[in-house]
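Board notes (copied after class):
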Amino acid sequence: MPRSLPGQLIASVWLGMAIVMVPFNLYSLNQDRQKAAQRVLTSLRDQGQITQYIITKWTRNITDLVQLIATSPSVRSMNADEANELFDRLHLLYPKREWRLFNSRGELVAGTDILRPVSPLEVRKSDYFQKAINGQVVSDVEEQCLSTQACFMMSAPVYAKGSLAYTTNSDRPIGVVSVIVQLKDTSDDSGMKGQLNKLSIGESLSRGFNLDPSPLSLQNGQLKGIEILMVNRDGHVVFPISTINDPISTLTPKALLASPWGPIVKLGITPSQNGRFQQVRTSGVDFFTYSQSISADWSVVVVVDKESSFKDINQDLYDEVVRQLFFLIIVSLVIFAVCQQVARPIQRAAATIREFSAGNFEARITTTRQDAIGALFRDINETGANLLQLVNERLSHAVTDQQIETAAKIQQQFISREEHSTGAVEIAADFDPAYEVGADWFDMIHIDDVTFVVVADVCDKGVPSALFMSVFRSLLRYSLTSNERAESRQELDQCLCDTITRVNDYMAENHGLSAMFATIFIAGYRYGSGELHYLSAGHEKPFIVRPNGQLDELENSGPAVGVFGGSVYQPHSIPYQQGDILFAYTDGLVDSRSESGASFGIARVKQLLSNIDPVTCSAEYLLRKTLDAVAEHRGKADQFDDMTILIMKAGRPSEPQPGHSPVQSQGQAD
């Protein structure tokens, strides 16, 4: 008996689909597992790099702050009342941080939240005190710190005051200042609190898989979840996300390496600067890890168990195969019964897709069908809606991106394109922001026979710092130009001092809680006076290149502006005659990183200035030579920070014009 046409058709469909689907499913199974593994590695990398950025910023903030506090007059005078008052103000800004000030004998001079008495002998024997009293800035994990719990501690040497508040004549520190963050508070203080859900869960779900949100705790048998570790080169560990693992941080490196965490800690002791993925097995469980250097002493390691990473992959693949088989059965039945009716819906679907291709994402297919064709129509409609939403989102982002681009263009337009130089001075300057907008600036003001120059840097970078930059710059310019004309050397010194003091007191009083401060170098040169008068408020030390090749380094005058209200600044003057070259810059120059992470450094700056011919070298030539040297050093590496350079060469003085009004040139937005 001949086989029926429906039977032949069904048999042909099943045979053809089997030939296609079986190898396809096997291939898909392998590909999906590889993609799943790659997604996990990508997620770990993203978490590791974001965590690396957060922790780097945190540790650098603590390092800069403790070094800054170590130079404050209150601390250097070893006055308990003044130091405690300073620590109390710092506690308002950083409530999770405790402070200690010891003298050279290990005696506690001042401190906050002192819960455990500590003897001078115990302090002197401690590793952090020994290193700090020998001139090092040191960070470590202490089991009990100076309170009742384990902590992360950063310590810096304190030197005696010299003839001025911010100079010293001592070679050996007179004390040690320490900032302490309890291990249980590192998550809050570093800004890592909430990152576990934000990075691990939300990001992972968006990539199509789910990770266990609980933290790993290998010592407690909790072998599923995720954890982020800070590891220093000695093998000490800090857990910035969870608190359940804080007791592990108090173990010695030897005990840590012998614990279940040992194989993971080893990855942090010798990490890669560019990040490294590895699969590690410990406690009988496989883990995915990502490790990367944070600094010369610390690294970050992100670890997640493999089982949690692949928890839903196998089941999803199995369900997908079942759905495919079910779909095959349905398709086989429907193809035989309604092959003619399907043609018309396919044509409608094709027409709608062509509308999408032409840019009409509002095209829709009206249908009440509940079968596979109806599902196809709804999928096409949903695709059109998604495409329309995507286009609208892209347009919205385009508006935001355009606004940022416009802000950057406006900022660049404010950079003076006019001639900076006069008959008495030759000036060349450059400002190069790390982001679209920057927080550095240079400025120059010519008033009668005096030229004022400014080079400054607001802490951090990006849009927030750029906003504060405009406040600092406007206050500085207003204060400088509103002073009475300085007729004498003393009046010029007083003009500089009054200008910086006004800006500092205003910013400290009105914006102190923002923790935004600026380092500022400001100088005034009266043509033919033979002297350069200047103030350097916590700024990178400028240089004077003499015609005979001698290189002079300018002194500091006081702390950064906006940190301490009532700070005292000491103006200085230095011989400055025809042919002398002033070279001022921000820390973006010395911090410029190569592709290997090496900084440009102050030594290269000095070498560059020593290799020029000061007599024939113009300000513009020296600026180009410096920028070329930085570009060659950086190579293809991203710019690390805003960079500003200003060079002024003294020429032959010219007679001022009667009634000459201030002429302004600036290197940042008004």
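Comment from the instructor: The domain at 71-189 is CATH 3.30.450.20 (Beta-Lactamase). The two ends are 95 Å apart (CA to CA).
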